[in-house]
Amino acid sequence: MRNSIYESTSERLYVIIPAAGQGRRMGGTSNKQLIPVGGIPVLARTLLAFEAFRAAQQEYGPLAVHCIVVASEEASDDIRKICEDYKITFVENIVTGGVTRQDSVWNGICALSALACPPKADDIVFIHDGARCFVDQSTLRHCLYGAETYGVCTAAVPVKDTIKQTDPADKQRVASTLDRSALYAVQTPQAFQYSLLYQSYSAAQKEKRAATDDTSLAEAIGLPVYLVEGSYANIKITTPEDLPAADRLQNFHRNA
Torsion angle of alpha carbons 18, 19, 20, 24, nearest 10°? Predict the structure, then answer.
């Protein structure tokens, strides 16, 4: 994994933001993307991070961001209002999510071809969870450079805890202790050249293959996948226990 800061010459960046989760693990029925953190909805924070990234990249040349948000039908109006309230202009479509996150991302991929400016084969597409609202500029730069260089990459951080694997027949019994030095926790963005993203997902649709993250679908068809430097602050807001950590992070960013 490289540690340097990358500069990009990409002129177009496509972003798919899965935001269709109903927040069942959050203990409610409302969309977790709309929960306020420090008075700002989670999804708004995520979109503002990409707005800041677009502005920062102008130093290296024009960067046009084309974004599709994948959400439930009932959340669409709220997301449009977020875009209006926070002056987010690069969200070009809001499409309905599927039964699973993978289904939702596929809906977003299919919607890319309907944009006024659809992606070319070597354009970069980010898939970024709407609930990861503290993604930083460095992680975004690393992912953009990584996708341009390698074709497929994902943000990741070294695992801090010791990880034990259990016996499949007895989940209480330890089968082995894994080598922590070789383990990484995968985050988003997961970044692809468009042709490789479409190839990975269309093969999964055809083979009815499921995976818990996007780059696993690329691995399944033999594409090399690379890790780039993420951030431990790039947390995914999933359960009520994540909210205090999110409040601390937003206070840190506000006072930094």
Answer: 120
Q: How confident is the model at residue 251 (pLDDT cuts 50, 70, 90)?
A: low
- pLDDT per residue as tens digits for the range 112-168: 999 999 999 999 999 999 999 999 999 999 999 999 999 999 999 999 999 999 999
The length of the chain in residues reads: 256
To which H or E segment does residue 210 belong? none
* Element spanning 217, H or E: helix 214-220
Domain 12-251: which topology? Answer: Spore Coat Polysaccharide Biosynthesis Protein SpsA; Chain A (3.90.550)
- Quote the pLDDT of residue 238: 77
Q: Residue ranges per domain, the chain?
A: 12-251
Rounded to an integer, what distance in angstroms lies between the CA atom of residue 183 and that of residue 56?
32
pLDDT at 246: 62
| Cα–Cα distance, 180 to 165 (Å, whole number) | 12
What are the C-alpha distances in Å from 235 to residues 37, 136, 196, 226, 240? 13, 11, 26, 20, 13
Residue 53, helix vs strand vs coil: helix
Residue 196 clears pLDDT 70, i.e. is over it: yes
